[in-house]
């Protein structure tokens, strides 16, 4: 079953599973413009000059300091990226926003605070606010005169946000909504001026409201004692008969879930980009330390197992970077070609909803890559990595929350498969015809098609076969469980892992091919990274598919399916130790991630 290259299908979320793209079809960091790089440079310089010197004080929650940092960043235009120019923002394109999120990540607490304001604290008003709401709030949010936050979670409603207990009822005079309830884990809640709050009207209609600090009956609890991101404000907030002007209902009554989920799509993607930047910082620190520290008369970086760690960190960062910038390019290309008669802001929202699958992938893979990198960073630092005087200790603590907020990684794995199945059933994504075609191929037995040729022949074959493996495992699961597949969470997670690796494999390969075509031999180390990643990913794909199949069918059917899986998963061995060593040497030569901007 060969995948097909169809330009229309390439523009659909999740289409990478059943289509094939060319290297020139994807956006890579090498395609970032000078103006887009300047956005990142401005952000990076601000963090290094203004934020980093204050880290110790921020970690101790020096009164008002984080709020001042955010306001100062607003003075140079770093808060209004999501806000259209007509409302005082800079209206950044998706690529620029991605670069911005990546470069603000040097200190996790500031990155989280910035995102809590300029991403999830702003997007609801940008996408769903009335003209009056936008004019009232967005210009001041863009400059930092007003600081914002997003209030969804509750003590008994974390991942299950629709189970919220906070209630809203219309006052007898019809002028105000009266809110009662509690919100939990609110980033920026300790100092925000504007709160995007979700509550159920009459206990039934899940809705969204704009609440201002100082409203009667509104109060803020004590700062939470957190394991990481200690410099950020995280508090519970309370509503006791709190009046909110009727005109501060955001979007429509009973449509709060539309606001919440579309906002989280944006937040998840931005979080992935932020984790990418954090991973690069940890790799940089680990490389420098490995050259400074000696043991047994040698520098740490001269030991094979240390080089392997540095190489693997860079390889995983390369894969997630390839995915994130590919996704940013797809979103920007779609936004840049608006549909006739569709408002630009609404078009952007529709596009982000289209690529919700890719946003969840960015969040999961980005956060898990950062977790891997900080763990290996602590290991490279050894005992000093466990000491709070060294930055990797804080990075280790700060990283862990990324797998929890913006929807846990478990929830996002479920969402990836649920969204794929929903799009398939609606006929938006032709997964069912592709699976049927694969079934015909399997029944026909092994074929002797002309094999791939060229420098990346083995990687091309692995990618094609990995897509077949997904269709094999997913098709079998859908046939067995049908509408009850959602109850088989372990199977869905295994399928989601295959989906994420397929996207990473293709993004890494196409980027390497694109770089090789334009830069020749100078792209050889990037090619090494792509080959090592794809080789290991193929092993993971086979394992996850085997797990899903064994939980789905049994007996002779399982034996047959596993035989097909083994045929699809066959790939030639390569020396990944040598590949990692070459990538590690490139890291050590520059003391940083070696593919920056390439």
How does this structure look, described?
There is one protein chain. This protein is an alpha+beta fold. Helices cover 56% and strands 10% of the residues. β2 and β3 form a beta hairpin. The chain starts with 6 loop residues before the first helix and ends in an 8-residue tail after the last helix. The N terminus is likely disordered.
For this entry, give a set of tags.
Butyryl-CoA Dehydrogenase, subunit A, domain 2; 8-stranded mixed sheet; globular; Butyryl-CoA Dehydrogenase, subunit A, domain 3; two-stranded antiparallel sheet; 20 helices; alpha+beta; disordered N terminus; Butyryl-Coa Dehydrogenase, subunit A, domain 1; 4 domains; 598 residues
Name of the CATH class of the largest domain: Mainly Alpha
Low-confidence blocks of residues: 1-8
CATH homologous superfamily classification of the largest domain: Butyryl-CoA Dehydrogenase, subunit A, domain 3
* Count of discrete domains: 4
Q: How many beta-strand segments? A: 10
Report the CATH architecture of the largest domain: Up-down Bundle
Label the overall shape: globular
């Amino acid at each position: 079953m060969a995948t097909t290259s169809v330009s229309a299908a390439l523009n659909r979320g999740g289409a990478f599973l059943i289509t094939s793209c060319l290297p020139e079809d994807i956006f890579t960091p090498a395609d970032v413009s000078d103006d887009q790089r300047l956005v990142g440079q401005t952000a990076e310089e601000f963090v290094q000059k203004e934020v980093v010197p204050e880290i110790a004080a921020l970690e101790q929650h020096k009164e008002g300091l984080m709020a001042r940092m955010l306001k100062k960043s607003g003075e140079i235009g770093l808060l209004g990226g999501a806000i259209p120019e007509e409302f005082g923002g800079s209206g950044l394109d998706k690529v620029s926003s991605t670069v911005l999120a990546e470069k603000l990540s040097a200190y996790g607490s500031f990155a989280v605070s910035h995102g809590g304001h300029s991403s999830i604290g702003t997007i609801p008003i940008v996408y769903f606010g009335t003209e009056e709401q936008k004019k009232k709030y967005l210009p001041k949010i863009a400059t930092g005169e007003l600081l914002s936050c997003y209030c969804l979670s509750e003590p008994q409603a974390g991942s299950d946000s629709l189970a919220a207990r906070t209630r809203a009822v219309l006052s007898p005079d019809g002028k105000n909504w009266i809110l009662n309830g509690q919100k939990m884990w609110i980033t920026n809640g300790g100092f925000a001026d504007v709160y995007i709050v979700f509550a159920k009207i009459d206990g039934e209609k899940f809705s969204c409201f704009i609440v201002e600090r100082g409203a009667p009956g509104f109060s803020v609890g004590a700062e939470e004692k957190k394991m990481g991101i200690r410099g950020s404000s995280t508090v519970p907030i309370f509503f006791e008969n709190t009046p909110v002007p009727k005109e501060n209902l955001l979007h429509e009554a009973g449509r709060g879930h539309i606001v919440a989920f579309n906002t989280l799509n944006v937040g998840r993607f931005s979080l992935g980009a932020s984790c990418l930047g954090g991973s690069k910082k940890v790799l940089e620190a680990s490389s420098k330390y490995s050259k400074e520290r000696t043991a047994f008369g040698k520098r740490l970086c001269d030991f094979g197992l240390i080089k392997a760690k540095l190489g693997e960190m860079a390889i995983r960062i390369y894969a997630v970077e390839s995915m994130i910038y590919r996704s940013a390019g797809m979103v920007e290309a779609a936004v840049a070609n608006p549909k006739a008669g569709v408002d630009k802001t609404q078009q952007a929202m529709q596009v982000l909803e289209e690529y919700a699958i890719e946003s969840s992938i960015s969040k999961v893979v980005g956060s898990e890559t950062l977790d891997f990198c900080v763990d290996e960073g602590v290991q490279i630092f050894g005992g000093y990595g466990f000491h709070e005087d060294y930055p990797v200790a804080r990075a280790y603590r700060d990283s862990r929350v990324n797998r929890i907020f913006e929807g846990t990684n478990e929830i996002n794995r479920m969402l990836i498969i649920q969204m794929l199945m929903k799009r398939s059933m609606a006929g938006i994504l032709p997964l069912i015809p592709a699976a049927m075609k694969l079934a015909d191929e399997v029944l026909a037995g092994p074929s002797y098609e002309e094999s791939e040729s060229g420098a990346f022949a083995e990687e091309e074959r692995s990618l094609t076969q990995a897509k077949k493996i997904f269709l094999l495992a997913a098709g079998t699961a859908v046939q067995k469980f049908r509408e009850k597949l959602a109850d088989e969470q372990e199977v869905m997670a295994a399928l989601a892992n295959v989906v994420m690796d397929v996207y990473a494999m293709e993004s890494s390969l196409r980027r390497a091919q694109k770089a090789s075509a334009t830069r020749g031999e100078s792209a050889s180390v990037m090619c090494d990274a792509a080959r090592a990643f794809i080789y290991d990913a193929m092993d993971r794909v086979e394992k996850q598919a085997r797990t899903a199949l064994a939980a789905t069918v049994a007996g002779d059917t399982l034996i047959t399916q596993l035989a097909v899986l083994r045929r699809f998963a066959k790939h030639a061995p390569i020396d990944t130790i040598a590949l990692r060593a070459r990538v590690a040497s490139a890291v050590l030569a520059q003391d940083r991630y070696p593919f920056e901007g390439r």
